[in-house]
Specification:
Structural class: alpha/beta
Number of strands: 14
Largest sheet: 8 strands, mixed
Strand content: 5-15%
Low-confidence stretches: none
Helix content: 25-40%
Radius of gyration: 24 Å
Number of helices: 24
Oligomer: single chain
Mean pLDDT: 94
Number of domains: 2
Strand order of the largest sheet: 7-8-12-11-10-9-13-14
Shape: globular
């Protein structure tokens, strides 16, 4: 299928914009790829240190037999449900590698923090920058430079972008991501949100709220809503960096181990269906793969966090994208999935309806994704329109087969391009005298796409919550929460504001949020102009807003503005970040360790990168 004209034009514009940077990156990849193997190239002492801790037979394979050696980078910890399944994965990987005449070593671990745990706490101010720490940790692990390929084990919000950024800095290695899957469905996301709104109104106490939350988050695996973690998995499928159809198979499913073993076979180029020399990840992740990821995000109403993360991912591969690219693609990529918060279904229901494979197949058939991309499989991206299953007798547990994901098994959850939920994607770019920002419109009711109301300005999310509790927001209002950008306090998610704002909207008030911070990938039905750039701490226009200013958020026209005469707005004084906030954001619970990152962080539209 010939690419859609807009997909083609956006891709060509990205290619032209990135030509010099991408060319230099590919040159570095080629130079690293063309070197001798690590155990042949390094000094004897270096090699001895590298293999001292592994079994004798593995030493023989690495050094004498020159067998492939896989580096494993894992985000395992047993505190977080999404990553606890990874505990036994290295042993599975090593067993399968040995069976194939190869070896594998855990090169290193990376931190994995959960925004669900840190939401609304000081820890959330470290969250965004943990992505770059994970990238650095990945680089530290792979810098041992004894590896012929890599398997990256991670699932959630900052973990996958961090692993991918780190992996792209070792772009000469064939690399496959190994997911762990979502937890089984518990208390529905809609029911959970209802209890949260009741708790915000004081109608449910702490015990009732805790019971609801524990019924929703109850087992190993990712959360079941379509937030940043599960959006990560969708995007990796769209980029061809998984074993096809791996994303949303639950940890306890009998296929999970088989798919993990298949990842080993895949990265070694020995997948049962077709031997294949897996290209280096730096060559696979080109401008077409990045556009494919963007299209998949838009078609599924995925997390707004990826308008930051995938800018950084692309930059790590020498590719420059911006929010205009997302916006133009959003005009032609239809919304094909309704998964909470864009609908009532969870990711398990999405998987049952056809999941990522269905969406990818539809986008490929419509020319809304590039089919001619490199992937980790011989069959290319078309393989990712399939769903895996186990074949053969029960004793033959590691034999996999794939079948087409189409047609949709539930059109209330996943629809074809011919009958989408919306003709356009789930994200919208806003611009005006308040700067540039984005809004996730896929979950916002149509009658709330335009909000015009007086501003109430807050310097913290806790101040907004206090005003709500005091009954001060019982009216049409645009809540402006500033000093929440990367340079101010690390750009925390403000998801704790969703319940009180939802309550106000439920009472019939016209309510919106405008902030230079982030909202969770679970951002819901309240219109929120987020990632406002430039941020207030960098002198951005949010620092000029005053209580009572009339603000218009128009997701139809794509505008965000204070309705004041231009000369009056231009002359208004820009407020400075309150000193008490500046001091508070610098200390306690590790925040001072991230001071250099806050100082060096680029804008949200530039990926909030700290390493450039």
């Amino acid at each position: 299928m010939t690419p859609h004209p807009t997909v083609r034009d956006v891709t060509e514009r990205i290619r032209a914009r990135s030509r010099d940077l991408r060319g230099a990156y590919l040159q570095r990849v080629a130079q690293a790829r063309d070197r001798d193997r690590g155990s042949d190239r390094m000094g004897c002492a270096n090699v001895a240190h590298a293999v001292a801790g592994i079994p004798a037979n593995d030493k023989l394979k690495v050094v004498a037999e020159r067998a492939p050696n896989i580096g494993i980078v894992t985000a395992y910890n047993d505190m977080l449900s999404a990553h606890s399944p990874y505990q036994g994965y290295p042993d599975i990987v090593k067993h399968e590698a040995r069976r194939l005449g190869a070896t594998a070593q855990v090169a290193g671990g990376v931190p994995a923090m959960c925004d669900g745990v840190t939401q609304g706490t000081v820890g959330m101010e470290l969250s965004l920058f943990s992505r770059d720490v994970i990238a650095m940790g990945t680089a530290v692990a792979l810098t041992h430079d004894m590896f012929d390929a890599a398997l990256l084990l991670g699932v959630c919000d900052k973990i996958v972008p961090g692993l991918l950024i780190g992996g792209l800095h070792f772009g000469h290695l064939p690399t496959v991501f190994v997911p762990a899957g979502p937890m089984p469905s518990g208390l529905s996301n809609n029911a959970k949100s209802k209890v949260r709104e009741q708790a915000a109104q004081g109608l449910v106490g702490r015990q009732g709220l805790l019971e609801a939350e524990m019924a929703a988050y109850h087992a190993p695996g990712t959360c079941t809503f379509y937030g940043t973690a599960n959006s990560n998995q969708m995007l990796l499928e769209a980029m061809g960096l998984h074993v096809p159809g791996t994303a949303f198979i639950q940890p306890g499913d009998s296929m999970r181990e088989a798919l993990t073993r298949e990842a080993v076979r895949t990265v070694l180029g020995r997948a049962a269906d077709a031997p294949y020399a897996v290209p280096p990840i730096g060559e696979m992740v080109d401008e077409r793969a990045i556009v494919n990821a963007m299209a998949a995000l838009l078609a599924t109403g995925g997390s707004t966090n990826h308008l930051i993360h995938w800018v950084a991912v692309a930059r790590a591969a020498g590719i420059l994208i911006d929010w205009n690219d997302f916006s133009e693609l959003s005009e032609v990529v239809p919304l094909l999935a309704r998964v909470y918060p864009n609908g009532s279904a969870d990711v398990n229901e999405f998987q049952a309806a056809g999941g990522p494979g269905f969406v990818i197949g539809e986008l490929l058939d419509a020319g809304l994704m590039h089919a001619d991309v490199l992937t980790v499989r011989a069959g290319g991206l078309r393989e990712y329109a399939n769903i895996p299953s186990l074949a053969g007798a029960p004793s033959d547990e590691h034999v996999l087969k794939w079948h087409a994901a189409a047609p949709s098994k539930n059109e209330a959850v996943a629809r074809p391009v011919s009958a989408p939920f919306s003709a356009t994607g789930g994200l919208k770019l806003l611009s005006g005298n308040l700067g540039r920002s984005v809004i996730k419109v896929s979950s916002v009711p149509d009658d709330r796409h335009v909000i015009e109301a007086p501003a109430r300005v807050f310097d913290s999310q806790s101040a907004l919550q206090q005003a709500f509790t005091a009954g001060e927001l019982e009216r049409d209002v645009v809540c402006v929460v500033r000093w929440q950008g990367p340079q101010a306090n690390g750009m925390p998610e403000l998801h704790k504001l969703t319940p009180p704002l939802s309550v106000l909207q439920g009472k019939g008030f016209r309510v919106a949020l405008v902030t230079d911070g982030r909202m969770s990938g679970a951002s819901g039905k309240v219109p929120a102009a987020i990632h406002v750039s430039p941020e207030a701490a960098a002198g951005g226009p949010l620092a000029k807003v005053r209580d009572g200013d009339l603000i218009r958020l128009d997701a139809v026209a794509g505008t965000l503005a204070v309705l004041l005469p231009a000369d009056e707005w231009a002359e208004r004084e820009t407020a400075a970040m309150p000193e008490e906030l500046r001091v508070a954001n610098s200390h306690d619970l590790g925040r001072d360790l991230f001071a250099g990152m806050r100082r060096n962080a680029l804008t949200a539209e530039e990926g909030a990168c700290t390493w450039l």
